[in-house]
Amino acid sequence: MDHLIPRPRLAESAPGSFAFTPGTAVSGPTDLVDPVRLALAVLDLGRGDDASARVRMTRDPALGPEAYTLTIGEDEVLIAAGDAAGAFYAGQTLRQLLPVEAFRSVALPGTEWRVSCGRVEDSPAFSWRGAHLDVSRNFLPKREVLRMIDLLALHKLNRLHLHLADDQGWRLESRAYPLLHEVGSHRTQTITSFYHEEPTYDGVPHGGYYTLRDLAEIGAYARARAVTVVPEIDVPGHASAILAAYPSLGATPGERHHVLDRWGISPAILAPLPGTVDFLAAVFDEIIEALGEVPYLHIGGDECVLDAWEASAEIRAYRAELGLDSPGDLHAWFLRRLADLLAERGTRAVVWDEAFVSGMLREDTIVMPWRGAAVGRRAAAAGHEVVATPVFPLYFDYGEAASAEEPLAIGETITVADVAAFEPAPATWADAERARVTGLQFQLWSERIPDGRTLDYRAWPRGCAAAEVSWTGGPARPEFTERLTRHLERLDAFGVEYRPLAGPRPW
Ligand code: TNX
């Protein structure tokens, strides 16, 4: 009971233990039984009725979303949950209580599948416990995304924000606008440098995209594991890949674009005109159709260079027609227009903090303050839901130590301890502001994450600390490190090439 990650609200041990045997079955409502069997897939538990089953599930509507209670006796395990997510998390807790062998992909012979008796009462402090995966800068094949979902799920993280479009690549099939994937999904040169180094091109082409069926699969796979996929189409900046495919959507008529072959901020920008809105509406519709349900869609809004809007007589005239004073207001207006369009489809918009201009956005738009707490606080004060995403300490593309032994990172240094000490809703804020912070999300920008192995190294164990903070609500307690040390054995069994606490791997 004392080595769970994230730490449950309440856990107490009791004498004795419960043994899973080949015949152990689970009973209860199907929508609760299935998630538990999935979380404990390694045990291949059967489905049973109340008379035969030794793991019994009941629905308890008094328990809030994602909450569960788990009572382990010597003869039976009782689980109560209010929803499928709560049931799934009860299963994940049981999995952590089992020997680390429960984190392998199959049960190896000779393992004793025993858990100590006790009771857990658990529920999350924050509803948004996320990871952001940039699949634009370096494409990650579908199998890596599915594996990431498995890893999020075992840490009770529940949002996968997929950054599907940026200057360096568009990563989704489009039937309405096929040049997006045909042209926008690849570049001819691999980029091996970042801001503070000279570009060094190795001439190796890079590309890849998910089909709409892949996206549907990713969404369904995530949903079964209590993870919501939050797709992002970053506009109106970060749009070179879109413009390479459809230059007429750009702010500068006649300008030719290519999928960007360097990192950084590009001056290329979409025109904020009705034609662009129609184009994006069609893309959103394809995404919503593929995923089925899309409660949140991220529309970006970060790092926009608005010069081309001011240089265009047409865009200036449009802004005057709308009665807007500045390009910044037009930027917020454009994103609001997209958010309205999403609202008609039952989807809430999420934006990076540059899109937040007080009074311009829809109030139900979620703001991600990546530039720090001050802007997050202003957005919360203005009535927006806020998900904490500050560079420090939640940019996991930053390295953990300044050392030549470490793989190349964007910057340094963000340690596990930095993440564990993070407070998403600082005590110094007003209660109303704090109440609007619904969670946190760590960012894995992929300029320097070329593959799944590097992803493992960057994401874990800092992701474990983010899970701890987002589930428990506050900075981790000092004993977190001991729990984490044991938890890493689980990640070893799973096959995660995380960064060891003691320092870099020697390869
Ligand atoms: C800033 S954060 C960006 C990304 C980069 C990242 C690198 C944000 C909304 N924009 O485009 O990938 O820094 O750390």
UniProtKB/TrEMBL annotation:
It holds the Pfam family Glyco_hydro_20. Keywords: Glycosidase, Hydrolase. SUPFAM superfamilies: (Trans)glycosidases, beta-N-acetylhexosaminidase-like domain. The keyword Hydrolase applies. Residues 126-473 form the Glycoside hydrolase family 20 catalytic domain. It comes from the Bacteria. CDD domains: GH20_chitobiase-like (cd06563). Residues 4-122 form the Beta-hexosaminidase bacterial type N-terminal domain. The keyword NADP does not apply. Its EC number is 3.2.1.52. It catalyses: Hydrolysis of terminal non-reducing N-acetyl-D-hexosamine residues in N-acetyl-beta-D-hexosaminides. Belongs to the glycosyl hydrolase 20 family. This is beta-N-acetylhexosaminidase. It comes from Microtetraspora malaysiensis.
